[in-house]
Amino acid sequence: MAHSLISLLLLSFLLLFASFPQSQSNQFCDAGIGNHESTCGISPSSSSSKLLIKGGTVVNAHQQEIADVYVEDGVIVAVKPTIKVGDDVTLLDATGKYVMPGGIDPHTHLAMEFMGTETIDDFFSGQAAALAGGTTMHIDFVIPVNGSLVAGFEAYERKAKKSCMDYGFHMAITKWDESVSREMEIMVKEKGINSFKFFMAYKGSLMINDELLLQGLKRCKSLGALAMVHAENGDAVFEGQKRMIELGITGPEGHALSRPAVLEGEATARAIRLARFVNTPLYIVHVMSIDAMEEISKARKSGQKVIGEPVVSGLVLDDSGLWDPDFITAAKYVMSPPIRESGHDKALQAALSTGVLQLVGTDHCVFNSTQKALGIDDFRKIPNGVNGIEERMHLVWDTMVESGQISVTDYVRITSTECARIFNLYPRKGAILTGSDADIIIFNPNSSFEISASSHHSRTDTNVFDGRKGKGKVEVTIVGGRVVWQDDELKVVPGSGKYIEMPPFSYLFNGIDKSDAKYLSSLRAPVRRFNSAS
Ligand code: URP
Ligand code: ZN
Ligand code: ZN
């Protein structure tokens, strides 16, 4: 009730806000969600368009150096030792801290209609949470409306109007005909989408078959768009679910038991082979198991262009929560592919540290306890999804850097730069370089973080990482040159986020034409035959 009232107030504010040009507005708004009161107000001090970050260790994926970073009008203007500026510049002291590109989350679902309900974080609350955790851009998945990509895109444009940070879109492909094929071209050439996701699971809703996947892979290749797959064998999952129900297993543990890792491995292998057959790059989203990771490893060793994206839940959790006797506690861990038994998490971490997997997403897709309770009598009805957009940067730091598995430059690569490269945004995003967007975090490695459902910024009332503590803390988040997170306070502007168009033909397409030509010349066909019988 309180939440709906706050949402209503927020909506009225947004409608009011929408009539002002962004540059004239200096209205800031606390997230006003989760456990926070809405405190929209005027904050002229935060509106300086000039910032100097002094004395920090500036970290890019390729190097780190002690330097100052000067920002004007949302763009990094200079990165060098000892920059001198005038009085009109806001100073931020970063001595002893890391100055890094804001995180880019390649995989989120904000305001997504799914499994009979809608994810509870929208483009404002989800992004506010992201900013509090040091993520400054995300890429969300547009779901077509009645199979129409254009209608889906327009619906997501409306959902994203309240954005307070930059975002891009992938597009799901859920059916196939001439109009889908035509609309894919419109998405790439006119709408700035350069990736399409194919769901090999969710039978009866989003799932596609191999024939569609093949058509989709071919079309992606011709458009220079990256094909992405949710890799689980949906037909076998359907069988597994029936088996569990027949055994009387109706609770959340049935979710994990019905879709074992072998089904993820099978679909990953199949998608990889089909992409090899078509000769187009492939991106496997939410890699949750050793089985899937090993298929990716094999393909990459053979020279195939396959990207593997683990998500933070798969990297740091195991499936034990699904056996919790309390339904809501167990249901909060339900996502697909499922969080696996202990051992998969460590193997995924190792794969990330050795380059078998390339970047970390979240698959942030949250439902509150009431929504999760839709499946109280049947795990098949529990809306699938967990949180992570606010926690990713801290948990990856603690799990990967503090444990000594990766360096600080690698951290920047897997949380930001590699995503920018894959989706063709680098070096505008994913770097602290002259000319890059001023999406920056100041990270204190000597501080600490603690995660709690009662203090997080997401609208959901549970958190799969509840109670986790660790080293390191995002102390300041700067988005588009504005300080939005400092001293544990969030000041975000609805409508200030921009849609970022992503051009096709990223680096992953380099050389595809040459390998196609090599393949054609290797065929030694058609053979010119004479008919010996005549
Ligand atoms: O459980 C999940 N992963 N929910 C979001 C939809 C998807 O499959 O990415
Ligand atoms: Zn998925
Ligand atoms: Zn997802």
UniProtKB/TrEMBL annotation:
One cellular component term from this protein's GO annotations in UniProt: cytosol
Reactions this protein catalyses: 5,6-dihydrouracil + H2O = 3-(carbamoylamino)propanoate + H(+)
Cofactor dependency: Zn(2+)
A GO molecular-function descriptor: dihydropyrimidinase activity
InterPro entries referenced in this protein's UniProt entry, alphabetically: Amidohydro-rel, Hydantoinase/dihydroPyrase, Metal-dep_hydrolase_composite, Metal_Hydrolase, Metallo-dep_Hydrolases_sf
Domain Amidohydrolase-related: 98-484
One family name in Pfam for this protein: Amidohydro_1
Enzyme Commission code: 3.5.2.2
Keywords noted in UniProt: Hydrolase, Metal-binding, Signal, Zinc
Signal peptide residue numbers: 1-25
Modified residues (N6-carboxylysine): K197
CDD domains documented for this protein: D-HYD (cd01314)
PTM: Carbamylation allows a single lysine to coordinate two divalent metal cations.
Gene Ontology terms: biological process: pyrimidine nucleobase catabolic process
Family: Belongs to the metallo-dependent hydrolases superfamily. Hydantoinase/dihydropyrimidinase family.
Subunit annotation: Homotetramer.
Identification of the protein by name: dihydropyrimidinase
Gene name of this polypeptide: LOC110412303
